[in-house]
Amino acid sequence: MAPRFERVAIAGVGLIGGSLALAARRAGIFGEVIGCARRSETLAEARQRGIIDRGSSDPLEAARGADLLVLAVPVRAIVSLGRQCLPALAPGAIITDAGSVKGEIVRELDSLVTRGRSFVGAHPIAGTEEQGPAAADPNLFANQLCIVTPSALTDAHAADRIQALWEAVGMRVERMSPERHDAVLAAVSHLPHVVAFALVNAITAAGSELPRYSGGSLRDATRVASSSVEMWRDILLSNSAAIDEALAGFSSELQRLREVIRRGDESELERLLAHGHEARCTWGRSA
Amino acid sequence: MAPRFERVAIAGVGLIGGSLALAARRAGIFGEVIGCARRSETLAEARQRGIIDRGSSDPLEAARGADLLVLAVPVRAIVSLGRQCLPALAPGAIITDAGSVKGEIVRELDSLVTRGRSFVGAHPIAGTEEQGPAAADPNLFANQLCIVTPSALTDAHAADRIQALWEAVGMRVERMSPERHDAVLAAVSHLPHVVAFALVNAITAAGSELPRYSGGSLRDATRVASSSVEMWRDILLSNSAAIDEALAGFSSELQRLREVIRRGDESELERLLAHGHEARCTWGRSA
Hints:
Distance between the termini of chain A: 27 Å
Strand content of chain A: 5-15%
Helix content of chain A: 40-55%
Oligomer: homodimer
Radius of gyration of chain A: 21 Å
Strand order of the largest sheet of chain A: 3-2-1-4-5-6
Largest sheet of chain A: 6 strands, parallel
């Protein structure tokens, strides 16, 4: 059953926070929406686009009396912003976030949240490389996956309400421990982002005229390098151990291909390519 | 001015050969089109789709009396197929190819082609991961780049006609030496393909359930791993030295990011990400 939140504070009214507000208002599950952003132009744009009813650059003021606080800010700003807002929230309020890394955030906020309030970590896997209120889209979440990451300390009823919130905006929800989430996302998201940045930097170093000769392969492989630098700096630093492991696995597969190409081992190269080809064609069918 | 070819033999009637035939017929510059493929089902499908008028699995028979021979087969089949067809071609015929690697092919065919016939290497950068006559599309080449790679031995008039052919099907044509072409393509195309295969193999090794948690970043970064294994085995082996150099540059950028993430160097990480972000946003505007 769809939950209802009467007064919702959203910190970060860009792609994720803005899209959630638009989708949840359309679904009729958000009452008043108060936005929080550092810059007044961002808040004005969010108001103009119908994302928020009103806004404040002061987190405490934005959070006052809210029964839901959504922390849709870069990963490393989540904990301190949650701590700051906490005293202003209504009794029984739920805090949730949309961060791409969960372990550290869940641990820290679990230890802070008391007095009848709850924290439930969530990660809607629905970003694009776009940013800001202008990129907000009420259909962003439709049929995408959201991972909700309860810990042993998470209130079960609050977790159900947050799950219902993301389902109400069209997402499939799966639950996972914060640690498992971080290992999975390191492999399927953080790794391809690091690879994209490394590819762009390597091509740029090899010659500034090179990109004009690229076809779709380089364009697609590097698309996410145009993502927010601040957001990805935070994600990579917050999940460094799991990312290092994912990078180790990737580097070893890359090195294996490199050696096989270098020594002209036709049958082994064919085997490695066929392995990737078959796996990728299967993803295509299931994704 | 658009050239005209009265009898055209196309070896390989899949994505590139098939699309060229459809586009050139629509532009009115191909007379009779004779296809060559190993399997009779492929030829039947190509006939049915209006790609060819007739076909043969015998290269000599397909090439008989042709004034243009297009070798649109995997890179390492091009030279031997060209050699095989040569005696059957009309006097003054032009041979061209669509291979993604040029140095070896241009050297070999330059030394074979005599008796008033000409070879002109070309690489239309317009592939996708799809294959076969079913993927042929007369609009595949529109506004894409074709690199024509004349050598010191290439007949100037023949090179002009091949340039005009690709322009007639909608491509922008640029000329480059075969060696320069191979270095450029190693960086902008062969490298992202190797990276895509390595990414899929690394993710698969880390857990078969992982792909279902991926968002757009992994999907886009690995899209080309569903390309033809035979085609890419050939390309990678034919351009191994240039690819090794491109892989060295990429591995070093990847390792640099890895170390910066590992030691939590926030400002250096931000600098590396910003470098990639800015470069990639510029490509977006120019591509």
